[in-house]
């Protein structure tokens, strides 16, 4: 009795001390909402406060947290501490002659679009949501629908400022600390906190692109379509992952080119998805209907449209918090890249496995990737990338294990930004430079001050 | 900076998240920005951001609310830099724990100095400049905490109530020169000040708050609750009998 009272008092005193130091007890979630991580969080509004946040309460590790768009446990640090970087959102420099930009880590792709598109500049590449921060973009070396042409985000980064776990702040690039630079691109926040990113934007003639959409009957048709579209600036495939048999791989292929003429700005604000949908709202029938509808949306003869970059790059952002649609239990995402050649067979096997499991997935996204990323843990490989959502349910691990096996056998890898279920063994096989990554990490963080739930799961941290 | 008809907003306590969001509003509407505060490194960054995003002149100016002797020269400097009409957004303030202020007189006196004394001296120095330009608006951040002293933060509340009383007379004086004074009784805003505190009711974002403040600053003056919900809430809280109020844990 008195023991619990002392414990309670001790807990209350600890909470008070944390509060006085600017820490708050929060519960963070990955975008898939399948797990929640209680931790202490600091939310610096400026550099001085960010530095102070390195002083973590005794016995806790630290991890930066950006836009919270990583799906699984990558941005989570259960029982540890998080630095929320979202308020560090200043654009520090812009050179209209070269398109070079320097930003704080919390600047988002939405900020870039708003500020620079009207002046004829676009992010060099962009993920499928504009709410990703520059810190997060580097930490996963993200890619977009132009990967086959433009490479990953890290390919456009000239230098980074990095706040090391020991409190030193250094500039890293291909010239200065190149090994640490390569470890930090795709480094999942484990090498320190990125405090500034210098990268090159691309010039565009207007705010819009010409988008060609056409129906694709099956997987062979898709692969041929991508091959024919190798020169397209942007390309992406939407697959109806529930279609099987002769229609396996049915979907829509979109290719796009910058347009000389722009469009009037899309009016209206983004709508927030109102409530948490009950878990039963999503079943095979409703998803099937949705997918079929999506397919029919594009007329048989194909379609050409002028689209604002925002609409083309961020189709899902029109519905804020669409992730709630999967209900309280949340969902997982599977994304892998498979090398050309063996990848084609593996792609078929993945789609067959998913279609047979009948797991509701709205749309699967198929992309072609070009060169490998620069980061030691960069995801990109030349080949096909397949991504899809699967609602959380009992027995899901079995399906994921099959998908992981097929991916490994084909020499592919699973994307850590989306992952919550990859095995440690699978990770070390898929990411051959992980050992090198660990060596560099130990050199800047010998005491293991930075950690994450994912790092523990994958055997990168104790 | 050349003289233009665009006003310049002088942000006092410019590092505050509320001030930052308001500066974005003002700059988006084409105004120049002077960022006054103590954290010059931070203000440099903010100045760069404002001028890149909105293509307006923005510059940091050192300012310490508690260094009252410097306020006259500070105002002179700002007026010269603006080159045109000045508007003022007064956001500086501190809110140390009440218990801490009770224990340590230096903390208590420091809060009064920063929240009240320093505000009056810088406003006093600004008055002749504002009167001479015969236009402009002053927006000051009061707080719902000033409406009725609560055990949790009555010294903080008192500084805000005192500021409000000061501003009433100040507003009346400046109205004769066509200058408007708006005192916002702010409810909780999600900033560094409130981050470590337990969940507060009707919390707004800095951006939402700034958008509301910008709208109010376009017309009229006087006092206003922001967000509006605090008007009915505080009307009730103010009218509670002392006997009941004293028992409440609010
Ligand atoms: C709808 C949707 C579509 C997506 N589409 C794509 C896509 O097309 N291509 C693609 O590549 N990805 C895509 N993603 C994934 C997303 O781009 C990555 O997960 C990205 O890293 C998220 O960035 P964030 O700012 O949200 O960071 P968080 O999710 O908060 O964090 C992700 C990782 O970045 C680290 N991090 C964050 N800030 C910093 C910092 N300042 N310094 C160091 N490390 C930091 C964190 O520690 C964590 O390890 C998509 C995600 C969603 C939700
Ligand atoms: N957040 C709320 O819920 C809330 C509610 C009601 C009213 N308010 C009021 O709103 C205003 C802004 O607060 P906030 O929430 O944005 O908090 P904040 O981030 O803590 O901002 C307060 C600012 O005041 C500045 N400041 C403090 N002492 C100063 C001094 N001696 N000289 C110059 N500047 C000084 C600080 O800057 P430096 O430390 O860098 O100098 C800081 O930027 C405050 O007046 C606050 O009382 C806030």
Automatic annotation (TrEMBL), chain A:
Pfam families linked: ALO, FAD_binding_4
PROSITE patterns: FAD_PCMH (PS51387)
Domain (FAD-binding PCMH-type): residue spans on this chain: 33-204
Transmembrane stretches, start-end: none
InterPro entries from the UniProt entry: ALO_C (IPR007173), FAD-bd_PCMH (IPR016166), FAD-bd_PCMH-like_sf (IPR036318), FAD-bd_PCMH_sub2 (IPR016169), FAD_lactone_oxidase-like (IPR010031), Oxid_FAD_bind_N (IPR006094)
Keywords associated with the record: FAD, Flavoprotein, Oxidoreductase
GO molecular function: D-arabinono-1,4-lactone oxidase activity; FAD binding
Gene Ontology CC: one annotated term: membrane
Protein's name in the database: FAD-binding oxidoreductase
